[in-house]
TrEMBL record, chain A:
PROSITE patterns per record: GATB (PS01234)
HAMAP family: GatB (MF_00121)
GO molecular function, one term: ATP binding
Keywords of this entry: ATP-binding, Ligase, Mitochondrion, Nucleotide-binding, Protein biosynthesis
An annotated GO cellular component: mitochondrion
Function (record text): Allows the formation of correctly charged Asn-tRNA(Asn) or Gln-tRNA(Gln) through the transamidation of misacylated Asp-tRNA(Asn) or Glu-tRNA(Gln) in organisms which lack either or both of asparaginyl-tRNA or glutaminyl-tRNA synthetases. The reaction takes place in the presence of glutamine and ATP through an activated phospho-Asp-tRNA(Asn) or phospho-Glu-tRNA(Gln). Allows the formation of correctly charged Gln-tRNA(Gln) through the transamidation of misacylated Glu-tRNA(Gln) in the mitochondria. The reaction takes place in the presence of glutamine and ATP through an activated gamma-phospho-Glu-tRNA(Gln).
Every Asn/Gln amidotransferase domain range: 395-543
UniProt-recorded name of the protein: Glutamyl-tRNA(Gln) amidotransferase subunit B, mitochondrial
Assigned EC number: 6.3.5.-
Entry-linked InterPro entries: Asn/Gln-tRNA_amidoTrfase_suB/E, Asn/Gln-tRNA_Trfase_suB/E_cat, Asn/Gln_amidotransferase, Asn/Gln_tRNA_amidoTrase-B-like, GatB, GatB_C_1, GatB_Yqey_C_2, Gln-tRNA_amidoTrfase_suB_CS
Entry-linked SMART domains: GatB_Yqey
Lineage of the species this protein comes from: Eukaryota, Fungi, Fungi incertae sedis, Mucoromycota, Mortierellomycotina
Automatic annotation (TrEMBL), chain B:
Protein name, per record: Glutamyl-tRNA(Gln) amidotransferase subunit A, mitochondrial
Superkingdom to which the source organism belongs: Eukaryota
Family listed: Belongs to the amidase family. GatA subfamily.
Active site: K379, S466, S490
Coiled-coil segments on the chain, per record: none
Entry keyword annotation includes NADP: no
GO biological process entries: glutaminyl-tRNAGln biosynthesis via transamidation; mitochondrial translation; rRNA processing
Domain Amidase stretches: 327-811
GO CC, alphabetical: glutamyl-tRNA(Gln) amidotransferase complex; mitochondrion
Length: 570, 827
């Protein structure tokens, strides 16, 4: 049942009895070491967001907002939308955030539920180191300041799929703050934009309610209950659905997260006036729905303002079928979550060393990597993006190049040939399908002229279908080795020229494209084994054309070859 | 004749405060001549009637509604009406009563003068169930002592209380055309006032003999009115005086605080009167009054008998785990039905066979631990796989935990035998073990060793709470030791009331895994044992690091703390005197000397100080300036955390689920309304309010600050550093001390009917924990050690030793001295 669990070493007791909340400001630069592990040195300012009481501490903290970009995306000449996102990304960890249960997507119902997840009396949460490390890494990747000390809080509400009756989150002292995401034309935006990250926090997910599987009953699946989520809250720095969509996409690449759930805050204001009342759009699960919902909401708000109806703060949902947002609840009926410091968990204390070590272990960040590979291998944006769009593909690519192959041919073989073929077959990329050594052997053989590109592709097909040998072995067995012998090819050419003197005359008469006919015929005779490049050299010299003549039908010949290749295979 | 008159008295305070009572009164009055079932009214808390046959005990108090029945119950008393009027709160007061006291065998006590209050007897008559703050008792004593016309007073309050209840019940009908109207006319208000004051009287401290008698009730009403006015005047004056002297609390924002101050102000007046009336008597009360009979003495002896462990160690064949188990089982079968200490008892055969195994191990000389083969009881909020873990709540009535708490597991590995699961206040919320779905637990003192035929009717006193069942089980020898949990004093208070050692270590010493949470930042596993040595043994076995509890100290942290503690006190030249506490400085917190403190408690405390001086300690008056704010802060934090911790009981995965479950919201509503008891619901409401966004800053955060301040207060007075907060050591500072000595409770165990029912003012009830809360808020180790018995009623009382965080060692050391000296005082 319950196995002893090693707690996060960074999880140290803060004060002897629960946490104490002091309103002291901590300069963000003050390092808090764990050299005195039991000693609480400073507290971060604690102010409630709803703050009825005065909070001088908050004023003491300098506002670090950078300059605000000039207005953009003005609608009807006067309306500017203001958009902020809250993104909940699932932490892909082996266990849940506060228990040892496995965190597996789509496991059979209620199979990964421990006593802690089911909120049995007397059980206590135990923070998982893995989750913390992952969250810290994400924070660092978003260039956020990771606090040496953060804490957990309880957010209360009653719902059957929330076993504890509260969600453990980080309300008062989040893990990290003040990060940013930079979007550039490379990301598909027409300009560069920096979106601030307000804060990043760890929290628990809920279980799933399955309504009306049996009429009138609600069934519960607690597999997801207690799994780790990372909530990322952006500053209201976005002005259009496009910006929001690209930001979500970018985050997805960064987190390598599958599903993310977004809440979007949208407001519209007239230029030169303060921000308008914002509406929160809940539970948008795809980039498309995020963008559509934002557009619909902007439209609604502007229409409302233009008909002189003020917008009131409220929570709304988005109905994809009608393309409209609808009201869920007003501000007045918003639940009071009664946030309270989690007394079962001491403060989370991270030493500078630990944070530094995690920083070191960060993989290369997407933007940096993109810049590097484009520079180093002379790739286009699209090629770079495609490479980075698949997990481990950059590493795959680089390992091939590192063996001394031409980057140009490798990228072509990787992206167009391999990935294209995989996509057709509906297989997702993995270095294991065709390993780097196999693909490398093809690229090498083709580059060396040992086999033609066409043969190479046939070999690749075989490999994708499960042949685990290298190209050499396959070519050997199939007898596909290219006829690289100059004399042999010359003989073939002579033969062909002798058989079609009328074509030679036409070529000499200016119809250079007929060269393609000869190449095609020879390729057909040799079953594609002749080297077309060498062939065209020989043919050109035979018919007395200069070697730099470009003949159009070469492409046509290629297509022919390709078709033939397909037939050959079958 | 008295009855009509008493019934004429409206009790506006009742009506105002507890409309339920109105209903009850009305219901009862509809059939005034018949006995109602024992469990009617607020007493229905007693799910299992303790004494099913009895119609005269307090539990069944609403039963006797006619004078006939009550006189039958009492036998010897001729005028039941008199009894009714006599709202004597004290058993020892029985000493005054002549005739009726024979049965109980208690010695009559010298009649005290009762000059002032003589006439107020019936005024108070209707207030039988009002729980008065102990605060109020002193005054009462003074007054009641003087009201001496208590002829034929029965010594058993329970009986009297029956009569009271009867009065109360009979009130409206019995009085022809009297002022039974419940309207709050001015006159009625005045009466109400007098009643309130009167209630003070009647509610007098259990330890004080109070006799409030009256005959011509109407006349008394007039007198009472006059008196009320006079008292009002006094009150105002005294309040003025009191306020002048009192240091204004720095922090005044909270509602509780206001109420507390109100109580305190009242307390000053009462103290004033009390002192006036008792000036002479107070100081040497302890010497003079010796109400414990021979029978009682034996009782004391048996309760404080040396632990089985010592006997086991001595190798005596006559004391082995087997014989110990036999004794325990005998005690359980004999007394548990009266005490209700254990709710679930383990299988006798299992206990016996385990005891046999343990005995064999002892004989081989290979016991698993010093505790091998002893029987341990566990409070109901410890999860165990073998018995239910109900927390004494209907919500978890059939809850069978699928795992075992760490503390329990450690004891089991040490060879301890599970005796049973002990009663408690629902989820630990309460101070008298009366808020329990499993029924009230009675204090074994006064019951154990009673002749069997009297068991049913023996006086019911509170065992304290919330670990009342655990304390009662240990005190009555049903088990060697018991585990309890201490949130605001839940181990120490019952230990004091029941005369056992209650130890609460520093927060974080013992894993809370498997302990059902009440207020997580305060909950501490505690022990209840007969001796300090036993406490230390049990504590050492369960004080281990546990990765399952993130708030439990790791070994590394323990080592770190130990570094701060090793700086041992210098025993100077006095070392050679062989005094155990030479060089130790003991602090006496001045703020604990509150107005509400009963004289007998005060004198006991004084004796304790002297005893420690005797043992070589230097006594230093010290100050914990914010003591007064502790109760308010505690209530705020504890209820807030409780409301959060109890959110999980929705009846979906385990526990009670309402049958009315159509919609989501109504499912929660019904399930939680049905499953939680009154006190739990009250605290959930309070806590929910405290956490709402509008009041979080004003309540929760301020309470946290107070908590922090109190912690600092303690750090300032302790010589040893608090390794958690990083306070500076002050070993050389003569003003800083190694341990504190303080009272545990304001009085001895109150009578059950004083703490039972709807009429209890919760704010007053929360005052029970006033001395234990500061140490809980600061997370400090604290121990309640039995130290003699109350001068007036002979019930045990404890003194509290508080140490610096992590300094359990010093607490044990001082505790042992207190224990030893206390033995001397008992004799």
């Amino acid at each position: 049942m319950m196995h002893p669990r090693i707690p996060h070493p960074a999880l140290r007791r803060s004060l002897l009895a629960g946490r104490t909340l002091l309103t002291l400001t901590r300069p963000a630069t003050t390092p808090i070491h764990s050299a005195v592990p039991l000693c609480l040195i400073r507290f971060r300012a604690l102010t409630t967001t709803t703050g009825t009481g005065t909070a001088p501490a908050a004023e003491a903290t300098p506002d670090v907002r950078e300059w605000s970009p000039p207005p953009r995306h003005i609608i009807n000449g006067r309306w500017q939308p203001i958009i902020g996102l809250e993104i909940h990304a699932q932490l892909k960890t082996t266990t849940k955030l506060f228990s040892d249960s496995k965190n597996i997507y789509n496991a059979p119902i209620n199979t990964n539920v421990s006593l802690i997840d089911a909120a049995y009396p007397g059980t206590l949460p135990q923070l998982s180191k893995e989750c913390v490390d992952l969250a810290v890494k994400t924070s660092l990747a978003l260039d956020a300041h990771v606090y040496p000390m953060s804490s957990f809080d309880r957010k209360h509400y009653f719902y059957p799929d929330l076993p504890h009756g509260y969600q453990i989150t980080q309300h008062y002292e989040p893990l990290a703050q003040n990060g940013k995401i930079v979007m550039t034309p490379l990301d598909g935006l027409d300009y560069s934009l920096t979106v601030g990250i307000e804060q990043l926090q760890l929290e628990q997910d809920t279980g799933k309610s399955l309504h009306d599987v049996y009429p009138g009953l609600t069934l519960l699946d607690l597999n997801r209950a207690g799994t780790g989520l990372m909530e990322i809250v952006t500053k209201p720095d976005m002005r259009s659905s496009q910006e929001a969509g690209i930001l979500v996409k970018k985050l997805q690449t960064l987190l390598r997260a599958g599903s993310m759930r977004c809440d979007v805050n949208v407001s519209v204001h007239e230029l030169g006036t303060p921000f308008g009342a914002r509406c929160e759009l809940k539970n948008l699960n795809s980039i498309k729905s995020v963008m559509d919902a934002i557009d619909a909401e902007i439209k609604r708000q502007i229409a409302s303002y233009e008909s002189n109806t003020p917008i009131v703060q409220e929570t709304r949902g988005y109905d994809a079928s009608t393309g409209k947002t609808f009201r869920i609840r007003s501000k007045e009926s918003a639940p009071d979550y009664r946030y309270m410091p989690e007394p079962d968990l001491p403060r989370l204390i991270l030493t500078q060393e630990e944070i530094h070590a995690l920083q070191q272990s960060l993989p290369e960040l997407p933007d940096a990597r993109r810049g590097r590979i484009m520079e180093k291998y002379q790739l286009s944006v699209i090629e770079a993006r495609t490479l980075m769009g698949e997990q481990d593909m950059v590493e795959y690519f680089e390992s091939l190049v590192s063996t001394g192959l031409q980057a140009k041919s490798v990228i072509s073989w990787t992206i167009h040939e391999l990935l294209g073929r995989l996509n057709v077959r509906g297989i997702s990329f993995s270095p294991k399908v065709v390993n780097a050594q196999q693909l490398g052997s093809i690229v090498e053989s083709v580059d060396k002229g040992q086999i033609s590109a066409k043969i190479g592709k046939s070999v690749l097909d075989l490999m994708i279908d499960g042949d685990a040998r290298t190209a050499d072995a396959i070519v050997q067995e199939k007898g596909w080795k290219q006829m690289g012998n100059h004399a042999e090819l010359e003989a073939l050419c002579d033969d062909m020229i002798a058989r079609h003197p009328e074509h030679v005359a036409k070529i000499q008469g200016g119809n250079v494209n007929l060269l393609g006919f000869f190449i095609g015929q020879i390729m057909k005779d040799t079953k594609g084994r002749a080297n077309p490049v060498v062939l065209s050299e020989i043919l050109k010299s035979k018919v007395g054309l200069p070697s730099d003549v470009v003949f159009k039908a070469e492409d046509g010949a290629r297509t022919t070859k390709k078709k033939k290749g397909g037939r050959d295979k079958s | 004749m008295k009855r009509p008159s008493t019934s004429a008295l409206p009790s506006p305070k009742f009506r105002k405060q507890a409309p339920v009572d109105d209903y009850k009164v009305a219901a009862a009055s509809s059939k005034p001549k018949t006995s109602t079932p024992a469990s009617s009214g607020p007493k229905s808390i007693l799910r299992k009637p303790l004494r099913p046959e009895s119609s005269s005990t307090h539990a069944a108090s609403s039963t006797a509604s006619t004078s006939a029945s009550s006189s039958k119950a009492k036998g010897s008393i001729s005028g039941a009406a008199i009894l009714k009027a006599n709202t004597q709160a004290n058993s020892t007061a029985g000493s005054k009563g002549s005739a009726a006291s024979g049965a109980s065998g208690r010695k009559p006590k010298g009649v005290l003068k009762q000059p002032v209050m003589a006439s107020r007897g019936d005024v108070t008559g209707g207030m039988g169930k009002k729980r008065r703050a102990k605060v109020e008792r002193e005054e009462v004593n003074s007054g009641d002592d003087s009201s001496s016309d208590n002829d034929g007073e029965d010594e058993r309050e329970s009986d009297q209380e029956d009569d009271e209840d009867e009065d109360e019940d009979g009130m409206p009908t019995a009085t022809p055309g009297k002022k039974t109207s419940k309207k709050h006319t001015e006159e009625n208000m005045a009466e109400a006032m007098s009643k309130i004051l009167g209630s003070t009287l009647r509610k007098a401290d259990a330890s004080q003999p109070i006799l409030a008698r009256s005959r011509g009730a109407e006349r008394k009403i007039e007198e009472a009115k006059i008196e009320t006015k006079a008292r009002k005047a006094i009150t105002i004056e005294k309040r003025r005086l009191a306020n002048k002297d009192r240091v204004k609390p720095e922090y005044t924002g909270m509602e509780y605080e206001k109420k507390l101050r109100k109580v305190a102000t009242r307390g000053v007046v009462q103290l004033f009167n009390a002192i006036k009336a008792q000036q002479k008597a107070t100081d040497d009360l302890t010497e003079k009054a010796r109400p414990i009979t021979t029978n009682d003495k034996d009782k004391v002896a048996s309760l404080s008998k040396a632990s089985f462990l010592d006997l086991l160690k001595s190798g005596t064949k006559s004391h082995t785990p087997v014989t110990a188990a036999a004794t325990s089982l005998e005690q359980i079968s004999k007394y548990n039905k009266y005490l209700n200490a254990f709710v679930d008892v383990a299988d006798y055969d299992v206990i016996r066979s385990q005891a046999e195994d343990a005995t064999r191990r002892w004989e081989k000389g290979q016991p698993k631990s010093p505790l091998d083969g002893t029987i341990i009881g566990y409070k109901m909020n410890f999860c165990t796989e073998e018995l239910r873990s109900t927390c004494s709540s209907s919500m978890l009535e059939n809850f069978q935990a699928p795992y075992t708490a760490t503390a329990v597991e450690l004891l089991r590995q040490a060879g301890a035998i599970t005796g049973g699961k002990a009663n408690m206040d629902e989820f630990g919320m309460g101070s008298h073990n009366v808020f329990s779905a499993a029924g009230v637990t009675r204090n074994p003192f006064g019951i154990v060793n009673c002749p069997t035929e009297e068991l049913d009717t023996a006086e019911g006193r509170s065992p304290g709470g919330s670990s009342g069942g655990s304390a009662a089980a240990v005190a009555s020898n049903m088990c060697f030791a018991a585990l309890g949990s201490d949130t605001g004093g839940s181990v120490r208070l019952p230990a004091s009331y029941c005369g056992v050692v209650g130890f609460k270590p520093s927060y974080g010493r013992i894993s809370r895994w498997g302990l059902v949470a009440y207020a997580s930042s305060l909950d501490t596993v505690g022990t209840l044992t007969k001796t300090v040595n036993d406490a230390e043994i049990v504590y050492n076995l369960i004080s281990k690091e546990d990765p399952k509890d993130s708030t439990c100290l790791t070994q590394r942290q323990r080592d770190h703390i130990a570094q701060g503690i090793t700086s041992v006190e210098q025993s100077e030249e006095s070392r050679n005197t062989g005094k155990p506490l030479s060089g130790v400085r003991i602090g006496v917190p001045q703020e604990f000397n509150i107005e509400e403190l009963s004289p007998s408690t005060k004198s006991l405390w004084r004796k304790g100080i002297l005893a420690l001086k005797d043992a070589g300690a230097t006594v230093v008056p010290i100050s914990i300036p914010n003591t007064r704010l502790a109760v308010g802060a505690y209530l705020t934090l504890a209820t807030a955390e409780a409301s959060s911790n109890l959110q999980r009981y929705d009846g979906i995965r385990y526990g009670h689920q309402s049958d009315e479950k159509d919609e989501k919201d109504s499912l929660y509503y019904h399930t939680r309304s049905e499953g939680f008891g009154k006190e739990v619901r009250r605290r959930i409401l309070l806590g929910t309010y405290v956490l709402t966004s509008g009041s979080f800053d004003n309540f929760f955060l301020r309470a946290q600050k107070i908590r922090q301040t109190i912690r600092k207060d303690f750090d300032n007075v302790f010589a040893r550093p608090n390794m958690i907060t990083g306070s500076l050591p002050g070993e050389d500072d003569p003003e800083r001390v190694h341990a504190l000595l303080a009272p545990v409770a304001v009085t001895t165990a109150p009578k059950l009917e004083d703490v039972l029912g709807d009429h209890i003012d919760p704010i007053n009830a929360y005052m029970d924990d006033i001395f234990t809360i500061p140490a809980s808020l600061a997370g400090l180790p604290a121990m309640s050690v039995p130290f003699g018995n109350c001068a007036n009623d002979g019930f045990p009382m404890g003194l509290q030793v508080i140490g610096q965080y992590g300094d359990e060692e010093m607490v044990f050391k001082v505790g042992r001295v207190v224990e030893e000296k206390g033995q001397a005082y008992r004799r």
